[in-house]
Design goal:
Number of helices: 7
Structural class: alpha/beta
Order of helices and strands: EHEHEHEHEHEEEEEHEEEEEH
CATH architecture of the largest domain: 3-Layer(aba) Sandwich
CATH topology of the largest domain: Rossmann fold
Number of domains: 2
Shape: elongated
Helix content: 25-40%
Length: 252
């Protein structure tokens, strides 16, 4: 899915574009809407979308002024305007495409497909970058990042940022030290293998924890680990000996 935001000062234009995307471009997920440049800039900074549909002509501050105020332009952009003369300026901003109002469905689909190709290429480049970084620094574990593919994006995280992992059928939930929760459609045993050399311990069939975040092991109620984020993680009977050995290494 492509995570997108729409910035336009006219609500009926937003509703129209959102409806067209839903019907003709199902690969686009509209994550946020804004009706002015300032709100749009805040939306972009907060959501970090893949794609921005931006109306150029807005009262107070136009779309180009908003773009100039943003320090990072990591997103693809499709500019939307009722004025043809803005097309040349759109090209100068390296826009994927620009669309004239009223919107043409064929042109919209073509513009989205172009954006999708560029987003995919960028993601593949990031994945290749991560691979090469791992190979170059195979001994320097602090520089390694784990790629977590979600529905909307692939997140790259340091193992030290992961407090714990929890499985549910074929899904694994990653709980990070900034309170972020990431859902990945891969079973937990795949990540047990990947993370075993980074200080993670499998204490239960459904749980994998970073030993750096273990605060205590409570022996009552069947036994559970208390982590730094206050979560309580069960320790299965078959894993008790292994967990005890890990806790001894922590004390040392």
């Amino acid at each position: 899915m492509i995570q997108a935001v729409i910035i336009d000062d006219e609500q009926n234009n937003i509703d129209n574009l959102e409806g067209l995307l839903h019907r003709y471009c199902p690969q686009v997920y509209v994550a946020g809407l804004a009706i002015n440049a300032d709100d749009g800039a805040a939306l972009i900074r907060g959501l970090k979308p893949d794609l921005v549909f931006l109306d150029i002509q807005m009262p107070g501050k136009n779309g180009f002024q908003m773009l100039q105020e943003l320090s990072v332009h990591s997103f693809e952009i499709i500019l939307i305007t009722a004025f043809d003369q803005y097309g040349i300026q759109a090209i100068k901003f390296s826009a994927v495409d620009y669309l004239l109002k009223p919107l043409n469905i064929g042109e919209l689909k073509t513009a989205v497909q172009k954006a999708e190709r560029r987003i995919t290429e960028k993601m593949q480049n990031r994945e290749l970058e991560n691979l090469l970084q791992l190979i170059r620094n195979r001994e320097e574990r602090s520089a390694h990042k784990l790629a977590l593919p979600t529905v909307k994006e692939t997140r790259f995280v340091h193992p030290k940022e992961i407090i714990r992992c929890e499985s549910s059928n074929a899904y694994t939930f990653f709980f990070l030290n900034d309170a972020t929760k990431i859902t990945v459609s891969h079973p937990i045993f795949e990540y047990e293998e990947l993370l075993k050399d980074y200080g993670f311990v499998r204490c239960h069939q459904s749980h994998l924890v970073n030993k750096a975040y273990i605060r205590s092991w409570v022996k009552e109620d069947g036994g559970f680990l208390v982590l730094e984020d206050e979560s309580r993680i069960p320790v299965s009977r078959s894993k008790k000996e292994h967990v005890a050995a890990v806790l001894i290494t922590i004390k040392k």
